[in-house]
Automatic annotation (TrEMBL):
Family, per entry: Belongs to the FAD-binding monooxygenase family.
Transmembrane segments: none
UniProt-recorded Gene Ontology molecular function terms: oxidoreductase activity
Name the record gives this protein: Pyridine nucleotide-disulfide oxidoreductase
Domain of life the protein comes from: Eukaryota
Cofactor annotation: FAD
Keyword Flavoprotein among record annotations: yes
All copies of domain FAD/NAD(P)-binding, residue ranges: 83-306
């Protein structure tokens, strides 16, 4: 929304005062975004495990794995055969395993193998153990399988240690511990046309001083559940590896440096220390208040401020749990849908707001997850601008309230101004805290705002910005993860796994040549018996567990029907006609997501790479293919349920394996 006041007014010639205000705001957003664009795009970052410096690479190692206990387990044998190999042991991998077991598809002791680079179950909750860690979606909606486990979360937003323990609880209840291969990196997954099996090539780590093992697991089915934020990254800051003080990434917190434990944020190791934090995203929002309590001086280096709303954390009330939350069968799915309705601008008048938190105050988040409220946006300049203008208007009350909240909390006007977010709600992950902004009122906390540029360089003793060195004793990298939209969302690129299907065809190359190619976002022609948790060409929710929950449910249904059709020995593959028809349907709806064109660079836009315009029609079509269902999760779920109703799994070819 950047061309004229007519755009703000949906095309009318006489703009109102509100339209003029929206136009001025869009100009401010555009100017702020321009400060942050870099021609190198994603190239400004490097995955920790691929950094040129050995010191930085070691920061990616697992600090939590119990190598002695894992090495004492009976080893998985090279060449072992399994019906299902699940790549990922977070909530997505656990949901795959539980649904397969509950469907009766994996009853034998060797039917399932779960492979993960971590030292245990939990996914992001295994790796992330920083002080202040909580889920940002309420735990009653976020924690999967609460009805099945009977577990009652301790608070509305469960802390990280509880989420980690809950993952292990799921694994225990469904007897998955002896089915897991941890500390194991999958290098490649190759379809063997002769055996009609997948060969999963794995490097199993054994811990310091131990020789790693190279294994190949054979699988009838491979299921990818490796999450969306799995590879910590760091900006390419000149001299970063030369910093002589303690240095670590928030995804691998070092309590030996800070003191405390994941369950006790008493960070006495930072007393008397000058501490620097690079980054002000969702992680820093939780970390900074804890660091501020103990550091002698805390310097927060900011490129782009976060949009920070109220949190409202509170313990779970047992009576409320029994009478209002877990009140009937199916309550958790109903609650997930209820939360999602507010974010898709689909809540009905008089509807009960079950969650009633700050997430439910942002209907304009529908810009990136869709809405059932409006027709398909036609791909004409007039209709696109009308659509964008409508969402900007919808977003205005929320963004103004968040900026006003910042101003009301932060006492220093100059600091408050720098902490205000100048971009639409949907451009970055919204944040929630009743402590973060308040931390900047403390005398030992300093905001170093880089005005969109980022830190210039590092020295042996600190960080440099705008010609000034900031001496530090400890440096913490709160610099996030590789965006899940890397490689146009290819499951191969995103997971870092080479995937080769029929005839040695590369999934990555297919994505590069054709763009996203799936049916319902979960499978691709040429890659039989391979399914992945949905990301592109599907629907998304702010609650990623809801997205994965819907995806695993759909995938297991397809497998169950295919196995029944092939007497328990199926080879199931989506047809090219079905995936192309689905791609056309997704492309038809891509206009809805034109709102991201006004976003500041970040993970939503692949650091601005997805915003680059091209005269190549084929490239533009590829981008459109990588879009989402534009009506939100409730509509997509209904579509899947209608698709599954007759049990025919239309669009798939199913044969019995030889």
């Amino acid at each position: 929304m950047t061309g004229s006041t007519e755009a703000a007014n949906g095309g009318n010639a006489a703009p109102s005062a509100e339209d003029l205000k929206l136009f001025e705001l869009s100009q401010k957003y555009t100017a702020e975004a321009a400060k942050r664009f870099r021609p190198e795009g994603l190239g400004q970052f490097v995955r920790l495990k691929e950094a040129g410096s050995e010191r930085l690479r070691t920061l990616a190692q697992d600090p939590w794995a119990d190598h002695a206990a894992l090495n004492a387990k009976e080893p998985v044998t090279d060449g072992s055969k399994h019906k299902f190999v699940i790549l990922g042991a977070g909530f997505g991998g656990l949901l795959f395993a539980v649904r397969l077991i509950e469907a009766g598809l994996a009853s034998g002791p060797d039917d399932i193998r779960i492979v993960d680079a971590a030292g245990g179950f939990g996914g992001t909750w295994w790796w992330n153990r920083y002080p202040g860690l909580h889920c940002d979606i309420e735990s009653y909606s976020y924690m999967p399988l609460l009805e099945e486990t009977g577990y009652v979360p301790t608070s509305k937003y469960a802390p990280g240690p509880e989420l980690l323990e809950y993952a292990d609880r799921i694994a225990t209840q469904w007897k998955l511990h002896d089915k897991a291969l941890f500390r194991s990196t999958v290098k490649a997954t190759r379809w063997d046309d002769a055996t009609q099996l997948w060969n999963v090539e794995v490097t199993e780590g054994r811990g310091p001083g131990e020789q790693s093992r190279e294994l190949t697991l054979q699988a009838q089915y491979v299921l990818l559940a490796s999450g969306i934020l799995t590879n910590p990254q760091v900006p390419k800051i000149a001299g970063l590896e030369t910093f002589t003080g303690p240095l670590f990434h928030t995804a691998r917190w070092d309590y030996k440096v800070t003191g405390g434990t994941p369950k006790d944020a008493t960070l006495t190791g930072l007393e008397g220390k000058r501490v620097g934090v690079i980054g002000t995203g969702a992680t820093a929002i939780q970390v900074v208040p804890k660091l501020a309590k103990y550091a002698k001086e805390l310097y927060v280096f900011q490129r782009t401020p976060s949009s920070v709303s109220w949190r409202g954390q509170r313990p779970t009330d047992p009576e409320e749990w029994k009478t209002k939350i877990a009140r009937k069968k199916g309550w958790q799915r109903e609650r997930m849908l209820n939360l999602d309705s507010y974010l898709t601008d689909g809540a009905q008048e008089g509807q009960e707001n079950m969650v009633a938190d700050a997430w439910t105050e942002m209907p304009a988040f529908s810009a990136v997850i869709g809405s059932p409220k409006y027709p398909i946006v036609e791909p004409t300049p007039e209709k696109i601008m009308e659509h964008v203008g409508r969402l900007y208007k919808l977003d205005l009350p929320r963004t103004e309230a968040v900026r006003a909240r910042t101003e009301s909390i932060v006492k220093d006007p100059e600091t408050a101004a720098k902490l205000k977010a100048w971009y639409p709600t949907w451009c970055k992950r919204p944040c929630f805290s009743d402590e973060y902004l308040q931390a900047f009122n403390l005398p030992n906390v300093y905001l170093v705002d880089t005005d969109g540029k980022g830190v210039d360089s590092a020295t042996s003793s600190g960080l440099v910005f705008d010609g000034k060195e900031y001496p530090l004793d400890v440096l913490i990298l709160s610099t996030g993860y590789v965006t899940p939209s890397i490689g146009a969302g290819s499951p191969a690129v995103r997971t870092g796994i080479e995937i080769y299907g029929r005839g040695g065809k590369s999934l990555d190359e297919k994505w590069k040549n054709q763009g996203a190619s799936t049916l319902h976002g979960v499978c691709s022609n040429g890659f039989p018996n391979l399914f992945f948790a949905p990301l592109f060409q599907s629907a998304q929710a702010s609650n990623n567990v809801f997205t994965v929950d819907v995806g695993t449910e759909h995938i297991v249904h397809i497998i169950e029907k295919a196995e029944a059709m092939a007497s328990g020995n199926a080879l199931v593959e989506v047809t090219s006609e079905a995936e192309e028809a689905w791609a056309l349907e997704i492309m038809r709806r891509a206009g809805w997501f034109a709102t991201v064109m006004g976003c500041t660079p970040g993970y939503v836009t692949a650091e601005g790479e997805s915003l680059r315009q091209s005269d190549d029609q084929m490239e533009m079509m590829k981008k459109a293919r990588g879009s989402q269902w534009d009506e939100g999760m409730a509509s997509f779920l209904k579509l899947l349920q209608e698709y599954r109703a007759d049990g025919s799994i239309r669009g798939f070819e199913v044969v019995s394996r030889a």
